[in-house]
Amino acid sequence: MEAHDSEGIQNIKNAHEAGYKHVDGYLFPCTTSKCSSAKTQIKEAHQALSASGAEIGKVFKNKFLGTLWVNIERYEWPSDKSYNRQFILDLVSEAEVLGYTVGIYSSYYEWDTIAGAEWSGGLNKLPLW
Q1: Name one GO molecular function term (predicted).
Q2: What is the average per-residue pLDDT within 66-74?
Q3: Which tens digit of pLDDT belongs to each residue from 90-125?
Q4: Could you read off the pLDDT of 77-91 as tens digits, one per residue?
Q5: Rounded to whole angstroms, how far apart are CA atoms 40 and 55?
């Protein structure tokens, strides 16, 4: 189920063309049963960015180009925290495999509701927004 923000992609390109060196992007994962897997969503987002020539969260030509922020906010996350934890790990690991610099966008309340406040999954090495 591909759903990409074409305006957001164009804004990334516009920012680079305007001379901005660090351009971030935000991924709002789809977590309902109708959605693709976490890894597939990352791959599809990567393909959409690459196909349009938009670059974020990567080192490109020896330049750091910003962060891909994975949004962990209550929209339609399942109540199963174990499932959610694995989904988050899959999002981050696939993005890192594809060369992205990854950050987590969340709050204490959101994180606690979705994954549990006590769980970091080894992701505490990532920037938090």
Answers
A1: lysozyme activity
A2: 92
A3: 999 999 999 899 999 999 999 999 999 999 999 999
A4: 999 999 999 999 999
A5: 19
Token duo for residue 81: 């925290």
Q: How far apart are CA 48 and CA 4, in angstroms?
A: 7
The pLDDT of residue 78? 96
Structure tokens at 85: 């934890």
Extract the tokens encoding 23: 């351009």
- Phi/psi region, residue 67 (left: phi>0; alpha: psi -120 to 50; beta: rest), is beta
φ, ψ for residue 26, nearest 5 deg: -120, 135
Tokens of residue 97, six digits: 């495999």
Q: Which tokens go with 53?
A: 């020539």
